[in-house]
Amino acid sequence: MYHHPDLMPFTPRERPSMRAAASNMIENWPPQAYRDEYAIMRGVWPILPRTLLLTDPSVIEEILIARPEKFRRDLFQTRALSNIVNRQSLFFAEGADWRWQRRAASPAFRHDKLRALTPTFVKCAESLVSEWRQAPRDAIFDVAPAMSRVTFDIILTAVLGPGAQDLDRNKFLAAINPSLSTIAWRFLYARIGAPRFLPFPGSGRVAESVHWLHRAISGLVAQRRVSGIDADDILSLLLSAQDPETGRVMNDEELISNLYTFMIAGHETSATALAWTLWLLAHDQTSQQRLRDEVEFVVGKHDITVENINNLTFTRQTLQESMRLFPPAIGVGRAPIEDIKIGPHHLRAGELAIIAGWCVHRHEKLWDHPHGFDPDRFSPERTKSRHRCAYLPFGAGPRICIGMNFAMLEMTVILAILVRSFRFSILPGHRIELATNLTLRAKNGLPLKIEPA
Ligand code: HEM
What we know:
The chain is of the alpha+beta class. It has helices spanning 18-23, 57-66, 75-81, 95-105, 111-133, 143-160, 169-180, 183-192, 203-227, 234-240, 252-283, 285-298, 306-309, 313-325, 357-360, 380-384, 404-421, and strands spanning 38-41, 51-54, 71-73, 139-142, 332-336, 340-342, 345-347, 353-355, 422-426, 434-436, 440-442, 447-452. The longest helix has 32 residues, at 252-283. Bound molecules: protoporphyrin IX containing FE.
């Protein structure tokens, strides 16, 4: 078990602060959320209302798995995220609308499709390895943007196939940044009922870049419709999807929204998880060497194959433990569609309940030494007796992340290749400060020293 104060980089606040609400909102989740079955985040009345934080796995199970039809995504999270993960997409659809979109997209995440993507995962990771090999000895790299570039290349190939080269990758990544880094502001404004036109720091740049992104993706859809190419990618799948019950197909707005959603939800999350994993391994050299030994034993010097992946057990456990400590999504929000009683809670229709993944994952009653790093927590023996809602990086129930298997496969391949090739170490004195953007990021990046292994 590895311990370091940076693994819990802030002290939970008894009294919420507006500064934290606009930058690192989990700092406002009170200490009780790490030891009780639920907690109320106090309001800074009349500005910030009280918020219910759920941490009891059996209550969470009831909401996400047993009675999901009684809940919908809450309006606050929807307003905060919906300029970047688009409103008409699978991510935000509800009821029958959601069911058909989920059915339409599911074939892209079937096992055979994911297996077929393995060479793309290898190629994109190896291209970063070549880039880093050119660097001088003891070079320092911020691994957060580097992971975003690799996972973005992968998702572009999965979504657009041959059309991937028509998109300006750097411009796209730069254009999503203003929206990603202002999510805490939009959530805060939604919570206090501020009008949408009220500016916040960076809102002008957000509007401009969202406009550019929309145009870029509409262009790609129009191009594919004209060319009539039937490629083996997610765009072609969505273009040909038809609801067997109603005969409905996706209109352009839904197509654009879903492409957008996959391109963003499909790379930013895995990039975040990978960056935190490298940072944790840079702290814990013993686990880093154990992972390297595993890759050398299972794969040797060859390219990783699909058959290898199952045997990379410690690599996978390391990713799982990393997403426990630093879950890319800090929690999911739900609101009941009617007044309802769940466990000890009487919730009114539309009231926000946050399933506080960050706190569940560090809860005193659910984990020994909750702030310590120990990939062996995810060994099969130790996982067996754990409640299925004590660990929720991908959510649970019918709305569980559709890209979960995609992400686990992709991250296992990338992590194995990087750790086989390089040794990562921390920069002494570099302190991290968390930022709750679309995913849980470090405000000043995650710079690491990188040398050949
Ligand atoms: C480490 C990587 C990832 C993490 C931690 C993650 C996490 C999540 C979480 C927490 C949810 C919300 C579940 C809920 O509201 O109950 C979600 C939903 C979703 N994710 Fe992921 N995700 C990851 C990778 C991906 C990838 C690779 C894709 C696509 C290629 C993707 C696409 C989606 C979509 C479309 C939804 C909405 C599903 C629905 O509402 O039916 N995610 N993800």
